[in-house]
Amino acid sequence: MKAIRSFFLLSFVVILAAGCSVNKSDSSTASGIYVLNEGNYGKGNASVTQFDPESGQVKQFVFQNRNGQPLGDLAQSVTHIGDKFYIVVNNSHKIRVVNDQDLSLVATIDIAAQASPRYLAEARSGIAYVTNLYGNTVSVLDLDKNEEVDTIPVGDNPEGIAVVGGRAYVANSGLGQGRTLMVIDTEKDVVIDTMSVYDNPTTVKADGEGRVWVVCTGAYNDYQDPNDDTPGRIVVLNGENGIRLADFEVGGHPTDMVINDARSSAYLLNGVVQRLSLVQPGVADSVFINRPLYALDMNPYSGTEIYGADPKDYTQSGQALIFNLEGAAVDSFKTGVIPGDFFFSKK
To answer: What is the strand order of the sheet 105-110 is part of?
Structure first.
């Protein structure tokens, strides 16, 4: 259910060699490389896989084994704030707060009204926001009390969120029909602007220069007729004031993006993986990794590995693949059902 990814991927067939950790990746500064496995809707089988890059050891059901309880129904995303990971469990309407060293459970934050939380970002010290897909709101979370303290009305079916300075940018997807981005004043917790972008904005990311990258997936008006689709586009904004800096078409229907500030590059999940330039925003390589993936991320501590997820048939165990910065696959390991996000802890 990544960015309603299962809904938008009309055909997803991936044939890859299975296997666990053929080579050892250069990740000596990461003590934990984790995969958040979405699980199947209504089954409550979301889980966490842990991979040790030094030994090649893979552990399944890490959260469940550590805490003696299941993670929940549809694990959506993870955000690292301070010494904790905040795991958003979409269909359980919960945020699992865990220690970033051993995933021991610290607290569970309940999201009211079955609002379907999706993506979480730190808004200011002690406060985080989480978008609510069916609540059409952003929840305000007190991270000291570990509770939802307020909600901010936004547009229809909000998805991605990114914070720069005192402004939070929220993508209103409209389940494919939306075209707006809302800006929240993070000190006052109120919407201060609504910006027009393109069809189906889903992913919002901030780079090291304070720019905001908005990925618009494009519309599917008739699934049987690709001629009436609208292509994916990216809008780049100055995060401090919202001024539009760049606007370009990427084609296809992109669903996620990973930013690599150190290499002035970004990697766009768009059927294949495309590489973008951060210096002169645009498509640098139309095919950087030539295979479809369900999720994409980068090890922030080594900065040298790109992680991709293959959910296979969405019912059996999936596979994580590790690529180098040239786009070559260098490693792989088994995951749980529907690997949908990655997160990393530092030694």
So the answer is: 75-81, 84-89, 94-99, 105-110
Q: In what order do the strands lie in the sheet with 190-196?
A: 158-164, 167-172, 180-185, 190-196
- 229: which residues sit within 8 A by CB, 6+ positions away? 218, 219, 220, 221, 253
> Confidence class of residue 346 from pLDDT cuts 50, 70 and 90?
confident
**Residue closest to 319 by CA, chosen among 331, 302, 305, 328:** 331
The angle at the Cα of 86, spanning 213 to 255, to the nearest 5 degrees, equals 35
**Tokens describing residue 160:** 């991605």
Q: Which residue is it, tokens 């979370």?
A: 141
Range of the domain at 53: 2-346
Select from 100, 106, 96, 99 the least CA-distant residue to 76.
Answer: 96
Please give the model's pTM, rounded to 2 decimal places. 0.91
- What is the tally of structural domains in the chain? 1
Tokens of 283: 């498509």
| Cα 143 to the center of its chain, rounded Å | 21
Distance CA 264, CA 279 (A): 6
Query: Both tokens of residue 250?
Result: 């990427």
The CATH number of residue 179's host domain is 2.130.10.10
pLDDT in tens, 139-173: 999 999 999 999 999 999 999 999 999 999 999 99
